[in-house]
Specification:
Strands 1, 2, 3, 4, 5, 6, 7 and 8 form an 8-stranded mixed β-sheet that branches. Strands 10-9-15-14-13-12-11 form a 7-stranded mixed β-sheet. The chain has 350 residues and is an alpha+beta fold. Helix 2 packs across helix 3 (72-80). It has helices at 49-54, 60-68, 72-80, 92-102, 106-111, 115-120, 130-134, 194-202, 206-211, 217-226, 233-240, 251-261, 265-269, 274-279, 289-293; strands spanning 37-38, 85-90, 123-125, 140-143, 149-155, 158-161, 164-173, 176-181, 244-249, 282-284, 299-302, 308-313, 319-321, 324-333, 336-341. It contains 15 helices and 15 strands. The radius of gyration is 20 Å and the shape is elongated. Strand 14 and strand 15 form a beta hairpin. Residues 46-185, 203-345 form the FAS1 domain.
């Protein structure tokens, strides 16, 4: 996971970011942003990812596959959510080749119990344009929504994702970006050994992981209060979704924040802005410290709270997120990674 706007692919970020695969471009990538494709609706606005793909005839097989999966509703719901997501979309020609190589018909593919996983392995959390990918320290690996690892690299100027070339980059959507590809991705299983399986089994989701750490009890209390608020969607996403990267202020950070702002713990817990504050400490995609440090810092990444978060590195090698220092990196969880920080992030809304 390691893009520029991803923010955290290195220390954090993806698309996911650790975000951790590959985006390819068909046109010359020296100026990837010039290839950006925006498909306005009748009202002049972008559409969500699924609707955007549905409007493109060259991706009709992919759209049919999404609709045909047993849990297609779950996939559609995921990609229809706020995101952001990056989707690597095989075009119709890619599916034709895939079917021929595997001796399948369209009907057999649409009836396959593996179809849902295949589709999920073409999407990563986080919005990563071609420019973002090219700014990364390639090759990198990112985790897909299907739980597999996707390798992203650059070959002869082309972006290669899971061995397939990006041929139509930067198809923009309201909740992310789509990159058209010339092949179907067959991602690798992240579980490469029994020891890896055992280690993963011992991990807990982000909220449970934080709850087991006494140094973050104030943050956990805040999450619990926000979970009962009208703005609880951020907490629901953090519990059920992922992967995410959380920048977690420790108890000392909250104490300093309260003193500086002249607030009591009761006042901040009762604040209508609490969910938004918490959301601005979370970004889509799993970005370890190594992912972040591999990025071309400084960068800005979007938070679940809707703000842009600046990630930078000091001359002595410390990673700063929203002006706060990471003091306890890489606390791993089943649905992402946590980085303990020494201050509460306050960022302007987008």
């Amino acid at each position: 996971m390691a893009p520029n706007r991803l923010t955290l692919m290195a220390m954090c970020g993806a698309v996911v970011v650790t975000l951790t695969g590959s985006i390819v471009s068909a046109a010359p990538m020296e100026n990837p942003t010039a290839q950006k494709i925006e498909l306005p609706s009748s009202t002049g606005e972008l559409k969500p990812i699924v609707q955007t793909l549905s409007a493109l005839p060259e991706y009709s097989t992919l759209v049919a596959a999404v609709g045909a999966t047993d849990d297609g509703g779950a996939i559609v719901d995921a990609l229809a959510a706020a995101g952001p997501f990056t989707v690597f979309a095989p075009n119709n020609a890619a599916f034709t080749t895939f079917l021929e190589l595997n001796g399948l018909t369209v009907e057999k593919l649409l009836a396959s119990p593996d179809l849902s996983t295949i589709l999920a392995n073409h999407a990563v959390a986080g919005k990563f344009t071609a420019a973002d990918v090219l700014a990364m320290d390639l090759p990198i690996e990112v985790e897909t929504l299907g739980g597999s690892k996707l390798k992203i690299e650059k070959v002869d100027g082309d972006i290669i994702v899971g061995g397939q070339k990006v041929v139509q980059p930067d198809i923009m959507a309201t909740n992310g970006v789509i990159h058209g590809m010339d092949g179907v991705v067959m991602a690798t299983d992240p579980q490469t050994s029994d020891s890896t399986d055992d280690a993963k089994d011992e991990l807990q989701p982000i909220v449970e992981t934080l709850s087991a750490l006494p140094d973050y009890s104030t943050l956990v209390a805040a999450v619990g209060v926000a979970a009962d608020s009208e703005e609880k969607k951020i907490v629901d996403d953090l519990v059920a979704g992922g992967p995410y990267t959380v920048f977690a202020p420790d108890n000392a950070a909250f104490t300093a924040f309260l003193e500086k702002s002249g607030m009591t713990a009761e006042q901040i817990l009762a604040s209508p802005d609490l969910a938004g504050i918490l959301g601005n400490h979370v970004v889509a995609g799993k970005f370890t410290a190594a992912d972040v440090l591999a990025m071309d810092l400084p960068i800005e990444v979007p938070t679940l709270g809707g703000a842009m978060l600046k990630i930078d590195k000091t001359t002595n090698g410390d990673v700063l997120v929203g002006g706060q220092k990471v003091v306890k990196p890489d606390i791993m969880a089943t649905n992402g990674v946590i980085h303990g920080i020494n201050g509460v992030i306050t960022v302007p809304t987008a």
